[in-house]
Amino acid sequence: MKIASHFISFLPHARDPASGGACAWPRAGALLLVLLLGCRREERLFPRDFIEIPAPSHAVGDAAGPTLAMGRREVTVLDYARYLNARPPGKTLTHPQFSMRQGRVVPARGEAYRPVAFVSAGEAAAYCDWFSTQGPWRARLPTHAEWQRAAEGGRRHAMFPWGWGAPEGRAHFARKGPARVGRYAPNPFGFHDLAGNLFEWCAPEADQEGNGCFAVGGSWAETDPFMLAIDRATPFPCDYRDADVGFRVLLEIP
Question: Is 195 in the same domain as 238?
């Protein structure tokens, strides 16, 4: 705001007769400048396909911790291919969503913009570790509480990302396979596919008992709508790899 106020002093002060000679457009110019500065700042903080998650309502000041931003969509096959190609050569790739072309991993036909599946909790965390090297942030899986805050979209205790009501036409479930990401309308915060399509791996909570892994959001294979409920976390073996579980990334920005 200080930068904007200094900038205003250099603007020509056009007069608006309808307002009694008050300055007409410097106010609009200042608003435009603030918006531009805000947009540039946001782009420096995290990529455009990430959305900031508000801090918990009880968090104040430093207690709120770092800024958190979560992917607006699940990690896609194309995203994961970039990661696989960035890794040192390792064991032979055996994954139904990829193929090899001239020594590089590429999405199988029709798979590029589907969410990546057949990834264990540990492999999802390894992708996050790699993504931490791609910018000024720490990338990791979201906890269920963080994911839930994003999924509620500002509506406390909402049952589904869209609020309440049947999931037909709002989520990809009771189908024969996953859909392209972003096919359905986003929730109020702008996140897509938080219900249905694929379950999403979560990081363990600080007070979580046991060593099991959990995934949230339900998947295309579910037939019971309550499997898509925001507050539901489903246990899985940590080494589970199948067509119904994927993940999305959360960023911590200092």
Answer: yes
